What does this fold into?
Amino acid sequence: MSAQNTKQAPDGGWGWAIVVASFMGQLLAYGSPQSVGVLYPEWLNTFQDSKGMTAWVGSLVSGVGLIASPVCSACVVNFGARPVTIFSGVMVSGGLMLSAFAPNVQFLIFSYGIVVGTSIGGFLYATVQNEFIALFGLDGCLLLIGCFALNIIACAGLMRPLHLPAYYLKQRAALAEKTEEKVLEKAPVVEDPIKKNQSVNVLITGETKERKSLVSYVTLVRLVKKKQKEYSEYLHSTAELLQNRVFLATCVSLFAYCLGAYTPLLFLEDLAQTEGLISGISTIPLVSIMSIAAGVGKLLLGVMMDIHWMNSIFLYSFTLLGTGVVLLIIPVTKNYTGLRVISALLGFFSGNWSVIPYVTTKVVGMDRLTEAYGILMFFGGFSIMLGPPVAGWIYDWMHSYDLAFYFSGSFVLLGGAGLFLAAVCCRNNNQEETSTPDTECINDYDKVATVA
It folds into this structure.
């Protein structure tokens, strides 16, 4: 065997335990939010509020999560994955349990939409929540899945860091510095019998303290200026990224996609019940079909990205256009079997989330991937928060889901068409220029996976 194959893993092989813990954490944390469409009809029947207001619960739980992702990343860097995961487990579990005692939709928006906020988790939770509602009611269902979410804390226990996080390193350095200062302060001073020398010692000590105070003030001023410079550079860098036409088109297309694509996840079950296509919720809900198809879509779309002649931006645009067309077909579908097929197609196309980091790399390059991906997630999270409530308000106004899905499908189509045209124009204008060579992308797959 070669030396490369026999090289010991830096974590001693513990990485597989991290993989299992991360998988279970994702399942427990995102299972209920991804299958919120099962809970939505129950909330409507329980609180008798408008569909637009109730839709805020499902939209916030995903939108807030995306917008807060840069903050969570910074917390992991500074404090480590273990304490952040434990805190998240307490928040998710507490939010779910608190939602069981919600007196109205407004309270539910806070407890479920903000406090709590993949594919396998969505599939399992959609079916399990359906059974729990039938056996224990809505409140009992929320209490039980809240108890399940406490297992996230157990998953966090396996997340042993390779190196101490930045926050603890800073604390250790600060503690060592304070200890050194105390030792210097407590050091015995040899008194000179001559009073003149004693006066000199006092003066030197006073000057030393004043010098330390001055140095501390200067250090603080430098730190403030450094942070201001970093923020200024970040804003300037963001402005430069948005001047890239293809990246700007990607941001707009993701905003348009999230504005419409999240709507069926929340409303499709209620649509089937409202139109009389099914009484109650099926044993395998439409949300479960979406989740399984999403897992297949992530796998197949990722494989297609590896084809050497495949243009990743055009493929991503195709998934947006396909989603828009399927959304426009929903209003003319008058049977539950048709909705199942539509759910499978929507789920498959939603697998495009897994290829967004690769597409972003092709547009802005590997060096700016992290920054660009954070901007994209902000656009997506903000749009997810708006889409379902707007669709709900349209239903409250028209008393029909038809216009809501036409609205959603049209926005997704416009986003996909805009990104496709921007990519075509950029390709025609820069035939001889390649911002990110294919060999570079192949060598940096691990970095793309890290961002994903």
Residues 346 and 442 are 29 Å apart (CA to CA). The chain has a mean pLDDT of 75. The radius of gyration is 27 Å.
